[in-house]
Amino acid sequence: MTNSVTLKNILVLLKLFYNNTFHGVFNRPFFKHKRNRYGFIFVLVVIYIGYFYLNIIEIEQLGRGLYIMDDAEYLYLSKITMSSFFNVILMISVIIAIFIHRTISLNRNALFFAKTLPFAEKEVIMSYMIFKLSVAIMLFEIIIIIMVPALKLMSTHLFVMLFVFITMHALFIAIFFIMEMIYAVISRTKGIILRNILSFLVDITFIFLLFTHFLTIRFTIDRWVGMQAMTVAQMVSIVFMSSVMIGSLALLLNYTYIVKDDMQLKPQYFKMDIPSFHIILPTTIPAIVRNKNFFYFIGLFLVVSLSAFIQAGRQGMLESLVFIMPLFGFIAITYADATNHVRKVFHLYCIKPIIELSSLVLSTLVLVLPTLWLGFVQGEGFILYVYSINIFIGAVLIGFLFPKSESNVNETIATLLLMIVVIVLSLLVNMKGALYPCLFLLLLMLYVVIKKEYEVAK
Length: 458
Known about the structure:
By secondary structure, the chain is mainly α. The chain has helices at 7-25, 34-63, 71-103, 108-116, 121-147, 158-187, 192-226, 232-258, 284-289, 292-324, 335-338, 340-343, 353-367, 369-377, 383-401, 410-429, 435-457.
């Protein structure tokens, strides 16, 4: 690597990262046909537009009562709403930064070219940071565009609304650079295990602080802001200037003092013996439980459970687990990527798609068994178990469509899509019997995708 840093080299690296990313996103057997690609995109667009339309209707209904208020009351409520708005942006920014750090990583091809070609170390690191920021901004835009109609509740002046929109992005970028600086400090510690532990503790700490802020602190801040003698425009100006200064300082510190090349192929699995426990196929259970995400989720559940137990007791902890435990199915996203090379030789052992599907279904029934117990303890009955199975099978399906090794952002896309699936399934929970045909549909789609994988392997 060289020592000089040029904008041209950074742009070349960014082009490399983007080409590698978008080449791998749809590089799967299921997406070989145009109708499958366009149909998939069409469904996502319809869901997004529908959600955006419903949001506009709700905002319009909320805004009807604003026209009967006097100016003083309107200003007070506008400042409180604006403060709450920026608090939400802050929380979203931290969550996205953590999410991007956990899911974005360069695959073998991109990492090989970045490391072997004569680029300066700082060029590679800054290019990677800009690449992650661009992905984070795209994710932020998807979320924020749904919140934009709420600006009508705070101001009717076009200039103020535009300034708020710019300030939201300045705040987001500042938070992103701060989080990157923290992770960069952690990357300078010696030892992979220590770095992983510190990174996990940072994530858990920020999540805990965010929930505390969301439930208690932000209301105090909102009331205090509402009582200050300033206009909405002045308030937005303060947030904008603070974001620019803090974000610039974080970027400067990271680039000048903290930046370190921590880009490498990181092991995703632990060498852990599973004592002769397999269901039909010996690869299914190990492919899921040996992944680092399995232990990350276990640790997250333990921390959340302990926190809920301390604050609300045993019953409060169980009520929290009703919402959290079904999300354990997210770990199944990595199954397809973990078994990709092994699956290519399945046909040599006369293993058919239906056999792998059967192994997956039975393994799912075993791995989500805790939700069956929890459902009956909390009076939810069998439905919580079926809900968890749907999430797990949905995660496996999405993992097949977007395996991590095929693109730099596939894990991010897969996780986002699974979040959408969870939201849809949550709505179906209240519809009696709706989860059963949904599960049948997911299994049918999974079988079709697995069959496509076998056809390509041959």
